[in-house]
């Protein structure tokens, strides 16, 4: 039996092999004859590819098929627990690493201590430690087809470089190069919002969406755009930077140097600043913790009217950002994730009202707006999806 070794990632990416593999992934259990008739590949081609996939144990045979009078046909399905993927959520607060099977089910995880204030070298070291921990489990390195890294800030996905991570003050951190050198496994790096978009798209049960925009609203505001099933980057990889969409010409100064960007109005810090302006000094002094976006959410849940009003207004503003996106791209679905989305009970109704008030047509007003269904795992699962997508959809890369 041939061993799955290094280069499995590249080996899986031949076009016909990918077509067969995708058919099996989406329609399993499925017979060889069905694959041939539904993909248009010839039966001998399908047979050869299936043989090689079976040899590498990427797929397996099962006898679950319905008998058509004769012998039960042998059906094929992914051998999900034979190959694995590592996902890394490299956030501004901590690094989370997970090991999943080919279906994206988590088998093992690692969460770093706080990364606030650490150097670029320490940050890379933390990331390596997380990956090494997962590899030291029962999984040999040869069975890991790739490592996906979702990094906050501006990322060059082609070179796998973090161009600028404002919260940590990093510039030009060559993540892909460092991790590949250390582990000899293919590494994909993208920014957190794009990873989130890919995760929400890839792990969607219905799988029929063509266009989706995912907004990551937390300590910053970013978005990932899936157009016709592919991540959209634009000419300089800046597509989706909606945090710097101008909302208020006379607004607050943003870290980018402009004023009134969406990011100055919708992040956790922005929510805290708004609340601080409206609360009396006495109210602020009574708090048992420093005023943060999370505190405002807690106050809102206790019925504090100022906190509720601030969150609702934040929702209205996010809704304005979203309606601009909708009129520009007309997506099937908008997904909202990140820390601020935790306060959805207060922000979601006003987001939806904002869209209802401003949409150009009834269908546009009714655009599906949902919370990230992968929740707090949406970024790290997105990192997994980026690797899976590049294996199963090589034409996307
Ligand atoms: Zn800005």
UniProtKB/TrEMBL annotation:
InterPro entries in the cross-refs: ATPase_NBD, HTH_CRP, ROK, ROK_cs, WH-like_DNA-bd_sf, WH_DNA-bd_sf
Record-linked PROSITE patterns: ROK
Family matches, as CDD domains: ASKHA_ATPase_ROK_BsXylR-like (cd24076)
Alphabetically ordered keywords of this record: Carbohydrate metabolism, Xylose metabolism
Domain HTH crp-type: 22-77
Annotated SUPFAM superfamilies: Actin-like ATPase domain, Winged helix' DNA-binding domain
Record-stated family: Belongs to the ROK (NagC/XylR) family.
Protein's job: Transcriptional repressor of xylose-utilizing enzymes.
Name used for this protein in its record: ROK family transcriptional regulator
Native species: Sporosarcina saromensis
């Amino acid at each position: 039996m041939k061993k799955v070794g290094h280069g499995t990632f590249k080996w899986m990416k031949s076009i016909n092999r990918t077509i067969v593999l995708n058919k099996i992934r989406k329609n399993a259990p499925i017979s060889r004859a069905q694959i041939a008739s539904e993909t248009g590949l010839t039966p001998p081609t399908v047979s050869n590819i299936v043989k090689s996939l079976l040899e590498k144990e990427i797929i397996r045979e099962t006898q679950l098929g319905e008998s058509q009078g004769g012998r039960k046909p042998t059906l094929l399905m992914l051998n999900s627990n034979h190959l694995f993927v590592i996902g890394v959520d490299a956030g501004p607060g901590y690094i989370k690493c997970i090991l999943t099977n080919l279906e994206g089910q988590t088998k093992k995880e690692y969460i770093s201590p706080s990364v606030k204030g650490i150097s670029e070298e320490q940050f890379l070291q933390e990331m390596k430690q997380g990956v090494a921990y997962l590899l030291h489990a029962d999984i040999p390195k040869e069975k890991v087809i790739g490592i996906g890294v979702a990094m906050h800030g501006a990322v060059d996905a082609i070179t796998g470089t973090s161009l600028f991570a404002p919260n940590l003050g990093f510039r030009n951190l060559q993540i892909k190069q460092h991790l590949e050198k250390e582990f000899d496994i293919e590494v994909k790096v993208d920014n957190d919002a794009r990873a989130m978009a890919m995760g929400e798209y890839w792990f969607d049960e219905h799988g029929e969406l063509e266009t989706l925009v995912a907004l990551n609203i937390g300590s910053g505001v970013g978005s990932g755009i899936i157009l016709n099933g592919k991540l959209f980057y634009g000419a300089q990889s800046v597509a989706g930077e909606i945090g710097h969409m101008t909302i208020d010409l006379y607004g607050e100064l943003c870290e980018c140097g402009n004023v009134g960007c969406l990011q100055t109005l919708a992040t956790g810090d922005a929510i805290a600043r708004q609340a601080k302006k409206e609360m009396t000094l006495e109210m602020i002094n009574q708090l048992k913790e420093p005023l943060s976006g999370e505190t405002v959410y807690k106050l809102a849940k206790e019925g504090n009217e100022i906190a509720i009003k601030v969150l609702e207004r934040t929702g209205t503003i996010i809704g304005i950002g979203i309606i601009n996106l909708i009129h520009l791209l007309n997506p099937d679905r908008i997904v909202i994730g990140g820390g601020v989305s935790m306060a959805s009970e207060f922000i979601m109704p006003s987001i939806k009202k904002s869209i209802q008030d401003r949409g150009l047509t009834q269908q546009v007003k009714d655009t599906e707006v949902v919370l990230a269904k992968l929740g707090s795992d949406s970024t790290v699962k997105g990192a997994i999806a980026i690797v899976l997508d590049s294996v199963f959809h090589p034409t996307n890369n």
